Automatic annotation (TrEMBL):
Signal sequence range: none
Protein name: Probable GTP-binding protein EngB
Domain EngB-type G: 49-224
Cofactor needs: Mg(2+)
């Protein structure tokens, strides 16, 4: 799978271009977004008709909350009341221009070993065998230290040659100094992974922090308006 070039939104310096990109992101995510399918096995994956953006992360990292915040919905993506329970790839069609894919959470300690292995195998096969996959948004809880499961996921994405971008979640819970230190530490981590996008997204689904900017970044992967 071909790695994508670094997102261009983060490189913009002209305010007019920045404003235009933010507006494009707003318009895209203000469009209709519908759950279309949940695949528990690779053979159940829907046909690839749109560019895909996948959301990955540990159980309870905030994937569902981020997808809901991006799309302006309260319950488009539903978080399970039991961590680690979601065992399928959930596909959401965004305005017939982009497919959002909510991946199963990883790293839940109480999940059976056989279940964990099944999840990992399905995720890897999906990641390396989905030509329409443009980027994986790897969510990391800003309040929690980086875990082995996270670094293993980064290595998995490197191995599958899939471009990924770290998204820091729940950043409103940290004071500015602590948030800056965490950001810097993750920035160093990014340098170790050839598949990693150099730009980190700093977000809070509850406060709306970073949501507009992330919409603008993801809009660059969407099909153009016809």
């Amino acid at each position: 799978m071909m790695l994508q070039a670094s997102t261009t939104f983060r490189e913009l310096t002209d305010q007019a271009q920045i404003d235009a990109a933010l507006e494009e992101g707003r318009r895209l995510f203000a469009g209709p977004c519908e759950f279309i399918f949940g695949a528990q096995k690779l053979g159940q994956l829907p046909p690839q008709t749109l560019p895909e953006i996948a959301f990955a992360g540990r159980s309870n990292v905030g994937k569902s909350s981020l997808i809901n915040a991006l799309t302006g919905r309260k319950a488009l993506a539903r978080a399970s009341s039991e961590p680690g329970r979601t065992k399928q790839l959930n596909f959401f069609n965004l305005a017939e221009r982009l497919m959002l894919v909510d991946m199963p959470g990883y790293g839940y300690a109480k999940a059976a070993k056989s279940v964990k292995e099944d999840w990992q195998e399905m995720m890897f096969e999906y990641l390396r065998g989905r030509p329409g996959l443009r980027r994986v948004m790897l969510l990391l809880d800003a309040r929690v230290e980086l875990k082995k499961h996270d670094t293993d996921m980064m290595k998995l994405l490197d191995k599958a040659a899939v471009s990924f971008q770290i998204v820091m979640t729940k950043c409103d819970a940290l004071k500015p100094q602590a948030l800056s230190a965490k950001h810097n530490a993750l920035q160093e981590q990014v340098k170790r992974h050839p598949a990693a996008c150099p730009f980190l997204a700093v977000t809070s689904s509850e406060k709306g922090t970073g949501i507009e900017e992330l919409r603008a970044e993801l809009a660059e992967f969407a099909l153009p308006l016809t």
